[in-house]
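Incident review: delayed structure delivery

Summary: a single-chain prediction request sat in the queue longer than the usual turnaround. Root cause was a stuck worker, restarted by the on-call engineer. No data loss occurred. The affected request and its eventual output are reproduced below so the record is complete for anyone auditing the incident later.

Affected input:
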Amino acid sequence: MSNAFFFKALVVFFARLLLKYFKNPKTLHRSYSTTTQSKFHKYPSLAHRQEDLLDHTLIFSVEGSLLKSQSLFPYFLLVAFEAGSILRALILFILYPFICVVGHEMGLKIMVMVCFLGIKEQSFRAGTAVLPKFFLEDVGLESFEVVRRGGKKVGVTDLPRVMVDSFLRDYMEIDFVVGRELKVCSGYFVGLMEEKKKKIVLDEVLEDDKTASKIIGISSFNISLDHQLFSLCKEIYLVSGADRRNWHHLPTEKYPKPLIFHDGRLAFRPTPLATLAMFMWVPFGFSLALFRAIIGLTLPYNMLIPILAFTGLRLQVKNPYFLQYSVSKPKGLLYVCNHRTLLDPLYFSFGLKKPVTAATYSLSRVSEIIAPIKTVRLTRDRNRDAEMMERLLNQGDMIVCPEGTTCREPFLLRFSPLFAELSDDIVPVAMDVKVSLFYGTTASGFKCLDPIFFLMNPFPSYTIQFLDKVSGANSEKSRIDVANYVQSEIGKALGFECTGLTRKDKYLILAGNDGVAYSTVKRC
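Output delivered after worker restart:
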């Protein structure tokens, strides 16, 4: 009964949209109702303008003058997949041909309905944790350099504000974001946008810059200029399709704020063709992941390594230190590595070709049960963890990831100095991971699925590099200095930047909590 009602409501929604469209068809055009054509100029003339714009207010269209791509579909697909489910993403993909033919405004409404209907407002974090990465990768270098020259910067978008607000404010340092608001009922999005406001609070946005001589607009030839803010501009510069094609992508080193943390499972930009390839791959990829997991959990190292390589898994070991050090010691070696995925200890054992005990913070119960090596979950109680790790080292070699959580980007989080007190035989290990379809880590999803998503990639790769041994417990350096030195050596080996950020910083940004209580809920 409920399913019948849902489909009936969906049919009624599309019927009303079609009726409205054919009664009053809208195309993507510029509106000249409040302006004269003499104020319009081609975009290159602004790019080459030598005049200082710091005393000007720049009002720009996010879709029309900042992003290289003209398609909004990838961003909505990310919302559907990451905030919803793979089924919601499939529905959006199936509707894509229909979205293309009904026009911009109606297509936007359809995508909003499919992506946001039934999503809890308080738990929606795709706009802060997922989308900024993909927006940043789509920013044009030339357009960014023009926008940053302005004094006050106002971004105008037809997208729901929750999708772009974090990207523009936190990463692009835009002063004001003017976007569409979503309707909410009982704390849940209903899949509808508020109607475009004909009047906005100009005092809040422009303050003393209401004089048109100091307001410049930037938009595109195929974007409507019916927003009230553009009517205040003395000059409006329009970007053409040829301009976009000639833009370069904004390099990561020029990001106003570095992107250190991001969440979500998709590791690729989900264009329509890429999304089609993903849906075709998923059934086979899931079966392949199960096969790889069975091989990795059951066979001995000399057999599983060539079989996994045949299935597409790549493992490269550089400078195998364990071959140079074979003297027996009262204690085992303490291997200290950076943390890329939950499979780090397992791949390390593959590279070492022998099992080692893994002590880690981010460990799901499922992984703990099925892991082919001994795993120990740390408690974050310093004295208890030190006693436990000391006991394990007396039994043999051990690997620990002192970052306490994974990091996808080329950055290293702060290393906890606890390991420096436990052993004088510390071997730093630099690890890196490459994936093409899915990330094998999450801050807001189920950690027990991390290995499955990683193994679903066609050709995932691990690189393990053994570095020179470091003296720890008997060193003249303090434990903090030892930890910082190990971090810097691993950073140099990988070309990663060292930071002082912690697990708590990561989870506050991506999940809105400290990462402790949350991990007990979705750890599986």
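Verification: Residues 272-298 form the longest helix (27 residues).
Action items: add queue-age alerting; document worker restart procedure.
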